[in-house]
Amino acid sequence: MRITLRQLEYFIAAAEAGSIALASARIRVSPPSVSTAISQLETELGAQLFLRRHAQGLSLTPAGQKLLVEAKAVIGQAQTLYTAASEATGQVSGALSLGCLLTFAPMVLPEVSQSFQAAYPGVTIRPTVSDHQTLLARLERAELDIALSYDLLVPEGFEFTPLAELPPHVQVAETDPLAQLTAISLEELADQPFILLDLPLSRDYFLALFAAAGVTPNIIAQIQHLDVIRTMVASRYGYTLANVRPRNKAALDGRRLVSLRLAGDHRPMRLGLLSAGQRVPTRLVQAFEAHCRQLISSSYVPGMDAPVLMPRRRDVTN
User: Fold this and answer.
1) Phi/psi at 10 (nearest 5 deg)?
2) Widest CA span of the chain, in angstroms?
3) How far is Cα 275 from Cα 158, in angstroms, rounded to an integer?
4) I need a surface site. Which of 73, 233, 236, 284 has the fewest CB within 10 A?
5) Helical segments of 98-184, H only
6) pTM for this structure?
7) Would you list the DSSP string of 194-210?
8) Strand pairing of 146-150 and 269-276?
9) What is the CATH number of domain 91-165+269-295?
10) Are 145 and 97 in contact (CB under 8 A)?
11) Class at the top of the CATH hierarchy for domain 5-76
12) Boundaries of CATH 1.10.10.10 in the chain?
């Protein structure tokens, strides 16, 4: 038998991504390498694993569906060998399945991953970016070792380690008259057009801020994609509320945004590490937790401006 773990890993990536190109981007391997590995696997097994449709990508055949289950089990068993060796020798190595919340992943995930792998060259990080509820489900199924997320909903059986507090703030276009302020209250925003981040839990969090202040927001759009919201705000379609403070102040179309302090006492989001409480952390997971505690704090969050409160509101002068 000449099946390799690498062929199985490439097959799993292609099956989950639904295309060679997406699998290549996910595992950072050239498309020809992925395609060749799958062809070799099909030849060795004497079975067609995928239906290849140019417009629709890849879809698993019945044989491919069965192999996917077994391949994941084999890769899981192989990873157990690395973990056992790491625990026995005291070395930190192996693959870390890391989840990250999609709202701050573009800022946090690259530096966290790169710096951890630089500190531990024997480690490979397999990232997953998704919403909070999906991360919880994958942690529960042991598909993720640990995740970076918020503390908005931490069910019984999970553990959350806080790293940084991110207070809410207001984002407006650089050309908006409101941009001349340093702070503004929810009451002052009541009549302004509001673009709401329409993700589970995030939506409830922002609406709860208005409810606590006794204010009804003028919601003109509910959108699930932060980049779309930032571009619409930069185009003066409305304002939004956010907790992340990207160092890059420009939207994707090049227009710039300004952050204003949200006046009043509001609950911050707490960014931290989320894990399944019933699982005993491996040496690899413990090393990653320690790395994050050293790297991330309320005074430094990768990819973001420090969440420092601005001075109180000043009036606009003519």
Assistant:
1) -65, -40
2) 80
3) 6
4) 73
5) 105-119, 132-140
6) 0.69
7) EEEE-STTHHHHHHHHH
8) antiparallel
9) 3.40.190.10
10) yes
11) mainly alpha
12) 5-76
Listing DSSP states for 20-53 in one string gives HHHHHHHHT--HHHHHHHHHHHHHHHTS--EEEE
Place domain 168-262 in its CATH homologous superfamily: Periplasmic binding protein-like II (3.40.190.10)
Only one residue has tokens 């060259």, namely 121
Yes or no: say if 278 and 233 are a contact pair by the CB < 8 Å rule. no
Distance from the first to the final alpha carbon of the chain: 80
Task: Measure the CA–CA gap between 101 and 303, rounded to whole angstroms.
Answer: 14
The distance from CA 181 to its chain's CA centroid, rounded to whole angstroms, is 31
Compute the radius of gyration of the chain from its Cα atoms: 23
Whether the CB-CB separation of 230 and 221 falls below 8 Å is answered with no
Tokens 């991360």 sit at which residue?
Answer: 135
Let me know how many helices (H) and strands (E) the chain has, helices first. 10, 13
What's the distance, CA 105 to chain centroid? 4
Neighbour count for residue 90 (Cβ, 10 Å): 7
CB 271 within 8 A of CB 164: yes
Closest CA to 239 of 185, 316, 311: 185
- Say how far residue 271 (Cα) sits from the centre of its chain: 11
CA distances from residue 33 to 56, 207, 226 in whole angstroms, order as listed? 21, 48, 34
Domain boundaries for CATH 3.40.190.10 within the chain: 91-165+269-295, 168-262
80-124 pLDDT tens trace:
666 665 555 567 788 899 999 999 999 999 999 999 999 999 899
- CA geometry: angle at 34 spanning 33 and 35, to 5°? 90
- pLDDT tens digits, 124-165: 999 999 999 999 999 998 889 999 999 988 988 899 999 999
